[in-house]
Amino acid sequence: xxxxxxxxxxxxxxxxxxxxxxxxxxxxxxxxxxxxxxxxxxxxxxxxxxxxxxxxxxxxxxxxxxxxxxxxxxxxxxxxxxxxxxxxxxxxxxxxxxxxxxxxxxxxxxxxxxxxxxxxxxxxxxxxxxxxxxxxxxxxxxxxxxxxxxxxxxxxxxxxxxxxxxxxxxxxxxxxxxxxxxxxxxxxxxxxxxxxxxxxxxxxxxxxxxxxxxxxxxxxxxxxxxxxxxxxxxxxxxxxxxxxxxxxxxxxxxxxxxxxxxxxxxxxxxxxxxxxxxxxxxxxxx
Length: 286
Prior knowledge:
Elements: H1 6-18, H2 21-27, H3 32-46, E1 51-54, E2 57-60, H4 62-89, E3 95-101, H5 106-119, E4 124-130, H6 135-138, E5 143-146, E6 150-151, E7 154-169, H7 183-186, E8 191-194, E9 209-212, H8 215-223, E10 229-232, H9 237-242, E11 245-247, E12 255-265, H10 273-283
Parallel strand pairs: 3-4, 3-5, 8-9
Antiparallel strand pairs: 1-2, 5-12, 6-7, 7-10, 7-11, 7-12
Helix pairs in contact: 1-2, 1-3, 1-4, 2-3, 5-10
């Protein structure tokens, strides 16, 4: 059996924060004698002095500072467990499944998730990133950010456009070609594709193309001069700014836009507070 209890450590924390036994007793709805007894018992069982008087305040001893610092994460975790149990009792959502197309800007996505966590700390977001519209991944999702506006899981609305730009490494031979660059010149070099995102008809596709399953791999392939490709402008902002990647002066189609839509699972009616918050955060403009 343990010599001490979380309750005793929580009372110690209260005394330190409030500065006195009397205020701690009031804050915890106890008598002052009860607080004093529990802290005396705590120190007796540990065999270490945790508090000493400093004027009218009770302050931690060096040993008390060290031990309370080690216990505080346990107290915080215990408070979280109790709050989570309360949320379960009250029917509050504890998990939200979110599917986001991998072309969605990462910085904006993480800012949204961070803000959501601040507003709903007891709701965990299970995030899945997908390429295009991965059917198995979206089957059970509550909220989706996908390229198509509607599917079997629900209906959605336009959220934003993702800009793709045709680029090649600054040392790629295409930058030595006479501008504007036409399809015949492009056909001499491999096209770097991101999965099935390029929707060119098969008969118009270049003779050689390389397909990568992640945006990061496609960007690296272009950086290593494996070929050229249309890449999300937001993901290559730094190499573009540094001049490592340079936009191709094509005769047509140098830029493309892919729309993303915000979709809610059709079974979610009415929407709960957590889903409404997430939708609002996605719709907010930076």
